């Protein structure tokens, strides 16, 4: 009897405490070909359907080799909240950019929870499209390489994204996203190849990334709150940018940006360092609670900049006046070299001046001359040693 009870308890223990089986779905078993030329989209989608339909944790395995993927949307909701999308090889976009059509997206995860995408490389093969755009021919907009939309508890880990046609990674309408150890690269003159774009999302962290691109390394759109960025190398590129904001909004009202921290970032040869940029239109919105600290600038054209006069082509900016209010922005311990004389430039809105700007321990130099600070409609305080001297 005692023996039976022991056996029963042992079984119960095993059932309760051992990890549940992690089903592995290898895309090769669903017909994918690692030959770089057979479209594996259907195979990937079938493997996803299996992983997503599993009631226990599941792994979708993409082995070494190159997989051509025309386009894929991985939809949830799924039956489990622990799916690993584990990439060991390269997933390549079609070489002919006209094949994307007008959707603007290559690989999409929508309405998923608890998905981790790791390792491997996404190759957007964007170079022909960039050439088309740079030549001024009429070309399609192109596609974002990887989009997570309307999703929760996402991890993007150790992924490389190269040569996207448009943005590399977009996080839209998500809650709880950790992007760590990603490597992003596209030519320094490639149009609109932003590294990571975050919008309408909360609780996103981007930690330890290397981003070299033709547009913003990281861009932050409306409706972003509680964003943490740390240990990023940026360059070439246009820097880390909150905005552009205030372009269009429902009934002239746009969601604000709140609680953004950018910490320990190196900018090398970029157009901007830390930037906040709003259109000079009558769309209302706000940016508040931003901290930029421990940044190193190496030959950056606009190391610290707020530009509320953005209006390319001077269209739909009747009075050149932004309604996006910018407040409580702190710059602390920002050092290095500016590639222009105006190392600090606060060009704020006449009707909505920037307030609560704080500068502390800044040292930005320009060649052998004294760099300058410029302020328009900007209020706040400077403490510690601030070079060039504050104009707040
Ligand atoms: C790309 O596809 C389009 C439409 O199918 C075709 O007209 C064009 O010739 C292709 N380009 C190349 C380089 O194959
Ligand atoms: C921003 O941070 C403050 C202070 O930690 C917090 O009270 C506020 O709720 C945060 N805002 C959002 C939108 O989460």
TrEMBL record:
It is found in: Secreted, Cell wall. GO terms for molecular function: galacturan 1,4-alpha-galacturonidase activity; polygalacturonase activity. InterPro entries: Glyco_hydro_28, PbH1, Pectin_lyas_fold, Pectin_lyase_fold/virulence. SMART domains: PbH1. The keyword Hydrolase applies. Belongs to the glycosyl hydrolase 28 family. This is Exopolygalacturonase. It comes from Phoenix dactylifera (Date palm).
């Amino acid at each position: 009897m005692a023996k039976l009870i022991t056996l029963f308890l042992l079984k119960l223990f095993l059932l309760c405490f051992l990890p549940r089986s992690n089903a592995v779905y290898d895309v090769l078993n669903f017909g994918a070909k690692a030959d770089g030329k057979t479209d594996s989209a259907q195979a990937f989608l079938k493997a996803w359907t299996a992983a997503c339909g599993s009631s226990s944790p599941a792994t979708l395995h993409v082995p070494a080799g190159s997989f051509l993927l025309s386009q894929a949307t991985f939809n949830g909701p799924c039956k489990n909240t622990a799916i690993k999308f584990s990439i060991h090889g390269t997933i390549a976009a079609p070489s002919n950019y006209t094949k994307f059509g007008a959707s603007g997206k290559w690989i999409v995860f929508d309405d998923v929870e608890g998905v981790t995408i790791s390792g491997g490389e996404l190759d957007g093969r964007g170079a022909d499209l960039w050439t088309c755009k740079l030549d001024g021919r009429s070309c399609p907009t192109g596609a974002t390489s990887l989009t997570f939309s309307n999703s929760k508890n996402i991890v993007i880990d150790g992924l490389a994204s190269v040569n996207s046609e448009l943005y590399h990674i977009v996080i839209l309408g998500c809650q709880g996203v950790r992007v760590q150890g990603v490597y992003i690269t596209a030519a320094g003159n490639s149009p609109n190849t932003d590294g990571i774009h975050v919008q309408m999302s909360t609780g996103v962290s981007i930690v330890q990334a290397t981003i070299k691109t033709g547009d913003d390394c990281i861009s932050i759109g409306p409706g972003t709150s509680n964003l943490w960025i740390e240990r990023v190398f940026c360059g070439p590129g246009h820097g880390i940018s909150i905005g552009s904001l205030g372009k269009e909004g429902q009934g002239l009202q746009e969601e604000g940006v709140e609680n953004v921290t950018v910490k320990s970032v190196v900018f090398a040869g970029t157009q901007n360092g830390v930037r906040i940029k709003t259109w000079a239109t009558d769309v209302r919105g706000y940016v508040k609670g931003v901290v930029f600290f421990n940044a190193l600038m190496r030959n950056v054209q606009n190391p610290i900049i707020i530009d509320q006069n953005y209006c390319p082509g001077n269209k739909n900016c009747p009075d050149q006046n932004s309604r996006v209010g910018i407040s409580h922005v702190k710059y602390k311990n920002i050092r290095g070299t500016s590639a222009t004389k105006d190392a600090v430039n606060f060009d704020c809105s006449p009707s909505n001046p920037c307030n609560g700007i704080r500068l502390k321990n800044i040292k930005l130099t320009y060649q052998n001359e004294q760099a300058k600070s410029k302020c328009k409609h900007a209020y706040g305080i400077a403490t510690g040693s601030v070079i060039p001297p504050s104009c707040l």
